[in-house]
Design goal:
Blueprint lengths: L1 H21 L4 H11 L17 H10 L12 H27 L5 E5 L7 E2 L6 E2 L7 E5 L3 H23 L3 E2 H7 L1 H4 L2 H15 L8 E2 L5 E3 L2 E5 L4 E3 L6 E2 L7 E6 L3 E5 L2 H9 L2 H4 L3 E5 L6 H14 L3 E4 L4 H12 L8 H4 L5 E4 L2 H7 L6 E2 L2 H11 L7 H16 L1 E2 L2 H4 L5 H13 L5
Parallel strand pairs: 5-6, 12-13, 12-14, 14-15
Antiparallel strand pairs: 1-4, 2-3, 7-10, 7-13, 8-9, 8-11, 16-17
Helix pairs in contact: 2-18, 4-5, 5-8, 15-16
Length: 437
């Protein structure tokens, strides 16, 4: 039986290799991909806002404009230890202050930056960035207030847990943390808000506290990821591989890819792999967040773009949710505005689906009517402050056009026949190079 299985695998391998070697890319597509791969000179696209920048913003701009050919600027063991010690001291100070105030007979209070207001963010760094504590609108949590007590207790719990994780140099997923205390939280979102509040208080990302997100995204292509623990992950696997939970634990990337294709849906991701996209459209890294992207997918995309110096193109549905997913990858989200420097990929370009694609390629039967919730979503997207820019105005044109037409369409509508995505639609879009963003 093992011998039969081995022969079948060899047969499949030979068939795949023969298919690869017999396929020839269109010279126009090769030329277009090579243009995508042309790396930009440092500093040429560094646009500074008119206002005065603080020191942290300058550091992030300089960091974002540098390239290190796939190598991660890893902290030394001593630096990592010092960073953990600093965070432990911060946590101990906050908990000590709360305890001292309570013992003195006063009511403990916590001041948190409000992350539910678009007006509490700045947008001139090409991403959604939460304002500093000195200028941001804040919420004061008072322990004696019945509405605040639950959130206050959640923050104290997360601080205590983070102290334990940092002291022991351990990590835990948010989901594991929830199930360890399910009677306290009742739902995951309550814990997530507590983690976000703690990160704002400490001004650090959750993975620095040992709290990592559960990954759901997939990645495939000519990419190797070298982890700090010595393991190597090869992404050239059938069906792709699950994106790692600990993105900060990746020490180095090695890739022969010339660009990155970000796909909205798992179904399209698998369809592309089945159609041989890694060869027909390659060399390319294909990544999907399976809908609205999780933190790990967004963090990995940002690192790949920065450290490999690759351009990233997005393929999403022509509907409000597809465009919102593109905007989340590109500008970041309101809920994660305190982490935008590591999660927002401001250089991301929209490949499709665009309005002209729908009118010229999608059959009328495949064009769907916008629902009332769709229209409300579109109006909300059009009003987003970060679209008040030359690039944002072009995106708003697509959104207002969609609203005016009352129509939407999925990716499958513009490439419904077998292999149409890889044989016609995507090659022609890449050759045209009419990207949005």
């Amino acid at each position: 039986m093992e011998l039969i299985n081995k022969e079948v695998l060899e047969l499949k391998s030979d068939f795949t290799l023969n298919s690869i070697f017999s396929f020839k890319q269109d010279p126009k597509l090769i030329s277009a991909i090579d243009k995508l791969f042309q790396k930009e000179k440092l500093g040429l696209n560094l646009v500074l806002p008119e206002r005065k920048l603080d020191f942290g913003e300058v550091c992030q701009l300089l960091k974002g404009s540098s390239s290190n050919n796939g190598e991660f600027n890893e902290l030394t063991r001593e630096e990592a230890l010092n960073k953990r010690r600093e965070l432990i001291k911060k946590i101990e100070k906050i908990l000590e202050d709360i305890n001292n105030i309570a013992q003195s007979g006063d009511t403990p209070k916590l001041i948190i930056r409000n992350q539910s207001l678009w007006s509490n963010c700045i947008y001139d760094l090409d991403r959604v960035t939460l304002k500093s504590l000195q200028v941001a609108k804040t919420s004061t949590l008072i322990y004696s207030n019945a509405d605040d007590k639950s959130r206050f207790n959640t923050i104290v719990f997360v601080l205590t847990k983070a102290h334990e994780l940092l002291s022991k140099n351990l990590s835990v997923t948010r989901r594991e943390l929830f199930y360890q205390n399910i009677s306290r939280f009742r739902n995951q979102s309550k814990l997530d808000v507590g983690v976000r509040d703690v990160c704002c208080l400490l001004e650090t990302p959750p993975w620095s506290l040992g709290i990592v997100a559960t990954a759901k995204g997939l990645i495939a292509g000519p990419l190797k990821m070298f982890n700090a623990d010595g393991t190597i992950v090869n992404c050239m696997a059938s069906g792709g591989i699950l994106i790692p939970q600990d993105i900060s634990g990746i020490k180095e990337f090695q890739s022969t890819a010339k660009y990155i294709l970000v796909v909205e849906k798992d179904a399209i991701f698998q369809k592309l792999l089945d159609e041989g996209a890694l060869v027909r459209l390659g060399p390319v890294i294909i990544i999907t967040g399976k809908g609205y992207p999780d933190v790990c997918t967004r963090q990995l995309l940002c690192r790949l773009v920065k450290e490999l110096g690759l351009k990233a193109l997005a393929l999403v549905d022509y509907d409000p949710h597809g465009y919102e997913i593109f905007l989340t990858y590109k500008y970041g989200s309101l809920a994660q505005s305190h982490l935008s420097d590591t999660l927002a990929c401001s250089s991301l370009l929209l490949l499709g689906v665009r309005p002209d694609d729908v009118t010229t390629l999608a059959p009328k039967a495949a064009r769907l009517h916008l629902t009332a919730p769709d229209k409300r979503k579109l109006i909300s997207l059009i009003k987003r402050p970060y679209l008040e820019s030359p690039t944002g105005n072009r995106i708003k044109e697509d959104l207002t056009g969609m609203l005016a037409s009352g129509m939407k369409a999925e990716i499958e509508a513009v490439a419904s026949t077998t292999a149409a995505l890889c044989d016609s639609y995507l090659p022609s879009k890449i050759i045209q190079a009419d990207y949005l963003g």
